[in-house]
Amino acid sequence: MKVGIISFAHMHAYSYATCLKQLDNVELVAVADDNPLRVTEAAKQFGCAYYSDYRELLATDVDAVVVCTENAKHADVVVDAAKAGKHVLCEKPIATTLDDAHRMIDACREHGVILQIAFPVRFNTPMRRVKQMIDEGQLGRIVAMRGTNRGQNPGGWFVQKELSGGGAVLDHTVHVIDIMRWYLNSEVKEVYAEVDTRFSDIACDDCGLLMLEFENGVIASHDPSWSRSETFPTWGDVTLEIVGTQGVTRVDAFAQHLTVYSDLDNKVKHDFWGDEMDLGLVADFISCVREGRTPSITGEDGLRALQVALAAYESARLRKPVRL
Amino acid sequence: MLNVVVVGAGTMGTVHAEAYQRMTQARLVAVVDIREDVGTALADRYGARHYLRLEDALLQEDVQVVDVCVPTYLHRGYVEQAARAKKHVICEKPIALTAEDANAMMEVCAREGVRLLIGHVVRFFPEYQRAHHLVQLGAVGPVGTVRTFRGGAFPIAWNDWYASADKSGTLITDLCIHDFDFLRWTFGEVARVYAKSLWKQAFNRMDHALVSLRFSSGVIAHVEGTWAAPSGFRTAFEIAGTGGIIQHASDEATSIHTDLRASESGTTGVAVPESPLVKSPYQVELEHFIDCLITGHTPLVTAEDAYEALRISLAALQSVQTGEPVFLREGLQ
Ligand SMILES: NC(=O)c1ccc[n+]([C@@H]2O[C@H](COP(=O)([O-])OP(=O)(O)OC[C@H]3O[C@@H](n4cnc5c(N)ncnc54)[C@H](O)[C@@H]3O)[C@@H](O)[C@H]2O)c1
Description:
The structure holds two protein chains of two kinds.
Chain A: E1 2-6, H1 12-22, E2 27-32, H2 36-46, E3 49-51, H3 54-58, E4 64-67, H4 74-83, E5 87-91, H5 98-110, E6 115-118, H6 125-135, E7 142-148, H7 161-164, H8 168-171, H9 174-184, E8 188-196, E9 207-214, E10 219-223, E11 239-244, E12 247-252, E13 257-262, E14 267-272, H10 277-291, H11 299-318, E15 322-323
Helix pairs in contact in A: 1-10, 4-5, 5-11, 6-9, 9-11
Chain B: E1 2-7, H1 11-21, E2 26-32, H2 36-45, E3 49-51, H3 54-60, E4 65-68, H4 75-84, E5 88-92, H5 99-112, E6 116-119, H6 126-137, E7 143-152, H7 165-168, H8 170-174, H9 176-187, E8 190-197, E9 208-215, E10 220-226, E11 233-241, E12 244-249, E13 256-260, E14 270-274, H10 281-295, H11 303-322, E15 326-327
Parallel strand pairs in B: 1-2, 1-4, 2-3, 4-5, 5-6, 7-10
Antiparallel strand pairs in B: 7-11, 8-9, 8-15, 9-10, 11-12, 13-14
């Protein structure tokens, strides 16, 4: 199978490329990026062809593309990819507006291509184990959940609203909302949120707090803040606590690490040794394409998570809960 | 495809059987155990046949590999029997309880032209592998001191064999040997050993060991092992270099903490920590061993490595008894 990567604007593209290289019977044939320096370096690093215009890549015989442009550009690229008959793995969040998300989902459906959204946390081994515990009923009926996906401010286009669609609250809400929906098989009914810029002098949000209620009555909260300081030992976290009638469990997606105190870097760092979740995501996408099955994480999943993040912004603006 | 017979259907035999079940390169065809019920149960679970005696299994089945998972004092007998039948051998650690036994095992395998692979699984744990790699990369500069910890509750097993020193070799030979092997892999040969333990002083099940290792490279290591904890099992290490420190603590690197409610039917509540991986280190180890048997590649851990780890254990036991350091190598002043 031949795969291309469109844009390295989102740094996850480098990880996905590395994963593609590790899979059997998959070839990363080309990369496209409108940044000339970035695209030539990526092509050299991964040993493949490159294009400055993604439409040229779409004109080749690639079977599928991984889209890692700035968030606001996802929609046009994905719609063009669908028209060209290419299956798509799209970085999260699916888009910056609900209209764009619908446009992407419709185009992919119309042209019969797979649209999978990159929520790799679903492939984190401890997170999968907890999904299994819940599905087996070990925790009883789930009644409450608490999530965090804190991080460091990535800077660059991530803090330019016209390209990113929003700051921390958009960037770091969608992963955990996706996991909560996946665990509960229920949709978010109502969102209340505090959103602010308190960690740096930027024109978009860098922290917040979401208070949620699901259709099945489960209450939940989530912290998506870019609140990790420079000396914090890792980029951030993904944690969940799940309260059920028969038990409570806490899961930390990145607990499996060594701690390294480095005088060379003058820093304390976590060195992760657990299973590589991006590889699970990319392998799953490839097998969906090969077998023509419904992707395990659909465009609708991407849309639902985006809805919650956008509702959080609206709630913060209105200073009241917003119903979905 | 290699056909395997697992000898010993206890804790480790079960872990190995499950690993073969998930492999494409190997197949479990038979289980040998002197206990009919335990052996049959394990064999049935994986569609294999149970035999009371290895000679019968070798006679009836088409087998290329014998995997020895019986208590340690029985390793030599089965390894020799398998080698003489021209079968490759995988054997749980420790290789044996004496240097003489270990030598005899390596010799018979060499003579019969079969391989002998010893399950020093710690080299296949990702956290230990990662630390080894970081040290090789010089992530913390030249290493000065190292501390390791391993242990928990006393192991429950067939016939309580861990409790007798002439069957398990004591805590130092059974458990601390894991860290001896990891340290030797990462820091080279050991020059001298000094150790203290509760062996012969207290009830065996409460054994606790403190071992000082001095490496030819100069590294000073402290190895702590225990069977004295009321419950649980945990591992930890710290590697201190001139440029930094690497720390691991299994109880802190645990990804899932679950607390289940006591049920109405009377079961008590339980707290269950878990740190799941897609492939258990035992599976990774056995896949590697099977691959080495097929390709002829040198394994990540050799029988000679297992022998050297045993020598460190024996030196530590000698030191416990004499109260004197034991010198394994000259050179370091
Ligand atoms: N690598 C590790 O992490 C690890 C962990 C535990 C044990 N071990 C090693 O694995 C080996 C087995 O330990 P275990 O804890 O599984 O023991 P165990 O007591 O749980 O199992 C031993 C099994 O061997 C059977 N057996 C006893 N005598 C036999 C004989 N003569 N012939 C055939 N079967 C016989 C018993 O019925 C029992 O089922 C030991 O060498 C031990 O040191 C390694």
